[in-house]
Design brief:
Layout lengths: L5 E10 L2 E7 L5 E4 L6 H9 L25 E9 L2 E9 L11 E4 L2 E2 L12 E4 L11 H13 L5 H22 L5 H32 L10 E6 L1 H8 L2 H14 L1 H7 L10 E6 L4 E2 L5 H23 L4 E4 L8 H14 L3 E5 L13 E6 L2 E5 L1
Parallel strand pairs: 3-13, 3-14, 8-12, 12-13
Antiparallel strand pairs: 1-2, 1-4, 4-5, 5-6, 6-7, 9-10, 10-11, 14-15
Helix pairs in contact: 2-4, 3-4, 4-6, 4-8, 8-9
The protein binds adenosine-5'-triphosphate (ATP) and magnesium ion (MG).
């Protein structure tokens, strides 16, 4: 069996309420307890920056720099144990004079990476936060990001492809806004070709993962209900009806036809940036959006556990799971079931809570840290 994916050392510098903090951990799940405002979620957010994207709060690069610290500078560094052995991963921003940093720098084993998308090759990290409790009854963009993050754990190029798609789309929007549908036709055509190619690849990866994930969460598990999943989107639908090359051609044609409408709307009205993840509570025969808050949370946990199990079966190691206050709305049995599932997965889960007693059942199968005022102390 391959070594478990795990953080072994984490350093945060000028990150949120951490001036300079360092923690060394083993492969077991990590329990973080502390008062409100201690820095528990901040620490999970720091870990979430070891994967591509904007982290678990979707924050801007400037926002996470410590208030009162050197302006516009922060970093998170970690030693990760993964399939390829230990690797040093670092990320952050350094302000260049007065210019705010526009992109997050990434270093892997001391070498600058071309893009933060490279992080996907080293760490797969999924998370559940209290904000996600409303994932099923808020806008599609949150569900899409959730889905794309899951896909990115399986298809290492997914994040980069989504990035290329969005850049091409933004550039097309810009041209359409500036000069309307008659803007530089050749350049618009090239951008639409890029959107078609990357968009169809994105849609295909989503369909493939949702199909496999659906098979994993068709059964209930320890109080977490069975869920049926589907990805809903015009491009994903096309892929159900025709081969990828034909779908690419179809998307390109559609985008070309929509230039006037999109110029008027000020955005692209068609494409994979509008897709959605649909989820049904099988036992209730109800869309997730109509389920109770607790039921929605349980469904979400079911999906995350299914994703982790699928990942473990695929790659030999479960992802790192960041479970922020996950016990808060769970009754005692469900909390125990969640801990059992995490232990069965062999995942290095980082779990926060305000009350240490909530974690008593985990005994020495987990390691404990007390968080206070941006500092960490091991708890015996
Ligand atoms: N950029 C920043 N610079 C300095 N402090 C910050 C920054 N951003 C957030 N904070 C502070 O970090 C503190 C801890 O936040 P965090 O969300 O991690 O707490 P927590 O331990 O998760 O608390 P809770 O139990 O309430 O969820 C807050 O007091 C917040 O004001
Ligand atoms: Mg918190």
């Amino acid at each position: 069996m391959r070594p478990r994916l795990a953080v072994r050392r984490l350093t945060m510098t000028n990150f949120r309420n951490y001036g300079s903090a360092r923690v060394t951990v083993d492969e077991r799940p990590v329990l973080l307890t502390g008062a409100n405002g201690a820095g528990k979620t901040n620490l999970l957010e720091a870990l979430s920056f070891l994967a591509p994207g904007r982290g678990l709060r979707g924050a801007s690069l400037a926002e996470v720099a410590r208030r009162g610290g050197p302006p516009g500078t922060w970093s998170v560094a970690a030693t990760l144990n993964g399939a390829g052995g230990p690797v040093e991963v670092g990320t952050g921003i350094a302000s260049a004079g007065d210019e705010p940093a526009r992109r997050r720098a990434v270093r892997i084993d001391g070498t600058d990476a071309a893009s933060q998308a490279d992080l996907a090759h080293y760490a797969t990290i999924n998370w559940l936060t209290p904000e996600m409790d409303r994932l099923f009854d808020s806008g599609a963009s949150g569900r899409r990001r959730f889905l794309d993050r899951l896909v990115g754990g399986f298809d290492r190029d997914h994040a980069a492809r989504v990035g290329r798609y969005e850049r091409a789309m933004r550039e097309r929007n810009r041209i359409l806004k500036g000069s309307g549908p008659r803007g530089d036709a050749a350049w618009l055509g090239a951008l639409e070709t890029a959107m078609a190619e990357t968009g169809v690849a994105v849609a295909a990866a989503r369909r493939s993962l949702v199909g496999r994930l659906g098979a994993y969460c068709r059964e209930a598990m320890g109080g977490f209900p069975a869920a049926a999943l589907a990805v809903e989107g015009a491009v994903e639908e096309m892929l159900g009806e025709m081969p990828a090359l034909a779908a690419e051609e179809g998307v390109r044609e559609r985008l070309a036809t929509l230039r006037s409408a999109d110029a008027e709307a000020g955005r692209a009205t068609f494409g994979v940036h509008r897709s959605d993840l649909a989820c049904t509570h099988i036992a209730r025969d109800s869309p997730a959006s109509l389920c109770s808050t607790g039921e929605q949370k349980a469904l979400l946990i079911r999906i995350v556990l299914a994703g982790a199990a699928l990942h473990a079966d695929d790659s030999g190691s479960a992802p790192i799971l960041l479970l922020d206050e996950v016990g808060a709305h769970l009754d005692r049995d469900r909390r125990a079931a969640l801990f059992d599932a995490v232990l069965a997965l062999d995942s290095q889960a980082w779990i926060t809570g305000t009350e240490p007693e909530a974690f008593a059942a985990l005994g020495d199968r987990a390691q404990r840290f007390a968080v206070a005022d941006g500092a960490l102390a091991p708890v015996a």
